[in-house]
Write a structure and sequence with these properties.
Chain B: Keywords: Gas vesicle. Chain B: InterPro entries: Gas-vesicle_GvpA-like. Chain B: This is Gas vesicle protein GvpJ. Chain B: It is found in: Gas vesicle. The structure holds two protein chains of two kinds. Chain A is an alpha+beta fold. Helices cover about 35% and strands about 30% of the residues of chain A. Chain A has five helices and ten strands; from the N terminus they run βββαββααβαββαββ. In chain A, α4 runs antiparallel to α5. The mean pLDDT of chain A is about 90. By secondary structure, chain B is mainly alpha-helical. Chain B has one domain. The chains are: A alpha+beta, B mainly alpha. The interface between A and B is large, with 61 and 41 residues.
Chain lengths: ~220, ~55
């Protein structure tokens, strides 16, 4: 059985009671870590992960640890499956990336992430029986116009939400999702209520998730020097 | 114990496994299994939501 130091996140080096994981501090920053059995992380099955699959259980726990830090301090979440050799390695990492991580933590201090998704309408099959060619074309034109209107409304929603957020990260529009964006906003704002209101005004059905720790704004790659 | 979130599994896996800062270098123990999952999941998530910009 091989063991390693699983790293969940980086935060400020301040006292935190995490009931399990602990902090390895260095120069004002700290890695949130716990010793794990590496065998638990091999061979995880991704085919239709269910709530009680090993992957789901480990990922939920990872999220719970990140959140318990997030409730008190700014947090830089690390990607699932980050395992260090030991406490010395943790200190080396914090030392090598001190400035970068400090700046990042300042950027997300007091902020949280909200996810907003607008799904494309389900396409119903056109019933061709008894439909004249003219009626078919009219129906098709109407559908295209409707789809276009929804797409424009989603773009307007994104523009207005962007004005209320500090930053946003979007996935490309697909056939299924017209808008799938994470917004980084001040914790005190009424962002989800505003998003609901704006979507209703625009006649859009939205799915809003959050508040999340700033998972989607972690486009940093930390390599030890 | 840290509280467990109630977010949907897809949203959760999207964030926890697909996002989050990546640590590289000799401080990290390579977990072959996780690297493989990461590849699989990236494909899965592109299928669901498009590549992240």
């Amino acid at each position: 059985m091989s063991r390693g130091l699983y790293a969940y996140a980086i935060t400020r080096d301040l006292p935190l009671d995490l009931a399990g994981p602990w902090l390895v501090g260095h120069r004002g920053l700290a890695l949130v870590v716990a010793e794990v059995d590496l065998d638990r992380f091999t061979g995880l099955d991704l085919d239709e992960p269910s709530e009680d699959s090993p992957l789901a259980v480990l990922a939920r726990y990872h999220d719970a640890v990140v959140r318990s830090v997030f409730r008190h301090e700014p947090v830089l979440p690390l990607r699932f499956g980050t395992v260090l050799e030991g406490a010395d390695a943790a200190v080396r990492l914090l030392d090598a990336r001190h400035e970068e991580v400090s700046a990042w933590l300042d950027r997300v201090r007091g902020r949280q992430e909200w996810g907003v998704k607008v799904r494309a309408a389900q396409r119903e099959a056109v019933r061709l029986d008894g439909l004249s060619g003219t009626a078919y074309l009219a129906q098709r034109r109407q559908r295209l116009a409707d789809a276009d209107a929804v797409r424009r409304a989603a773009a307007v929603l994104h523009e207005k939400l962007g004005e209320r957020a500090d930053e946003s990260v979007s996935r490309d529009v697909t056939r299924d999702a017209l808008l799938e964006t994470a917004y980084l906003v001040d914790a005190g704002t009424e962002f989800p209520a505003e998003a609901d209101r704006l979507a209703a005004e625009l006649g859009l059905a939205v799915e809003i998730t959050g508040p999340w720790p700033p998972y989607s704004f972690t486009k940093v790659e930390l390599a030890d020097a | 114990m840290p509280e467990h979130g109630t977010a949907s599994l897809v949203d959760l896996l999207d964030r926890v496994v697909h996002r989050g800062a990546v640590v590289r270098g000799d401080v990290v123990i390579a977990l072959a299994g996780v690297e493989l999952i990461r590849l699989d999941l990236r494909l899965l998530l592109i299928g669901i939501g498009g590549e992240i910009r």
